[in-house]
Request: fold
Amino acid sequence: MTERRSPRYAWQRNAAFRVAASMPLGIALIAVVAVVLVWGTVADARSGLKIALRTIYGAVWFQALLGALAVSLVCCTLKAMPYRWSHVGFIVTHVSLLLVFAGAVLTINFGAQGEVRIVEGGETDFFFDNAVVRCTDTSSGRLVEIPTSFEATAEQLRERFDGTVDVAPHALGGVEVVVDRYYPDATPFGTPEIRAAIPAQGIDVSIPAVADPEKRIPVEGTAHSLTVVQLFYDWKDNEETGGPDNALNPAARVVLHAPDGDFDLVLFARMPGFSMGEHAAPEGVSLVYRYAPESPRMRDWQAADSAIRVTVSDEEGNQTVAWVRRYDRNEITVGSKRVMIEYPRRVPLGFALVLDEFVARQYPHSAIPAAYESHLTMKGGNAPARAVTVAMNAPVKIGGYLFYQSSFGHDPATGRALTVLSLSRDPGTTVLYAGFASMLVGLIVTFYISPQLRRREQAQATGTL
Reply:
């Protein structure tokens, strides 16, 4: 048998190797990792798993700490060379710990969690990663990502939340983006619109209500056009008496340009069947003003229709403030730059999912859903198109992701059924299971088999066997 001090193992006397393989260093690293894991458990309980993953487990310093512990384990294992049969348990246990570390790093860096939202009859090729707001310079393609830690802040301030959360700014090629307000349950908001309908011709179109007395907007499919002359937050005696926070009687002054003349009208959002002006709308034509505030307000805490406010500024002092709904994106112009804000970010799936049909079954004599399932077609990727069904308590693996039927609803724009699927990808699971299994084997060998092998080796060395 080769002696340990043979020139073949001279590297074991290297100073750096001896420090890395020292037991005090290994114990100290294990103690630090244990403290961080306790910290991560507390953060998970208080702020949620995604915040703990991003700020602690997924941090570069924590993975560097795991790397240092892995190096120490490897050196401790090599320190025992040349090996004997009694070292088998010791080696297997150390290898199992390395597998556990590798599985954790794989999951942190290459795993994924998110949700897919598909309208019946529609398709999607991306999922929403709820842990990140993505900001992209549309001209250069440069991007930065802001973690949605403001959601955790709002949860901690649940009883006294006023809607304002400070988030560290992020530079984007000379542009600064700051999320400075978060509403977990916001009132509906957006661009006001005018709905023009001619039922006899099957015409029903929406026109953004942006005041411009010089612009004529064609009513698609007709010979009519529309000019939005003025918008009122609170119309009274043909004058504006309100403001964005006091929209008591929203109204729009419009001119309908028809083949038989112009019609000057005042449309009232809260009285859709009533209009004022020099002329009534021509017979068979309906114009309705739908008012929507430009920005949301904070409602009672429900964590439902959330929205964020972003302030985008450049180096020349230009600044733009805009709101972004959840599951939406908004291209914001500041100076000569254009920045796309996605809340949350959209991540390509690598294939497309088509929702062919959504089926919900209720309990007898009740509107409570008993079961619901999504009938999908997977297209693209490296596999031929195939039909798959995702149902309650019956997840399905598609394209490397595991899909779960999460919830459902209706698309407000079309009224069609909307399915919500949760997805996850955990490439470290197999490695983790292998690590746990080998750790069990290593412990059994260490405590029950290795002592017998050690006694036999000692007996052979003394010649008593």
In short: DSSP finds seven helices and 26 strands in the chain. Helices lie at 15-20, 23-47, 49-57, 60-79, 88-110, 149-156, 429-462.
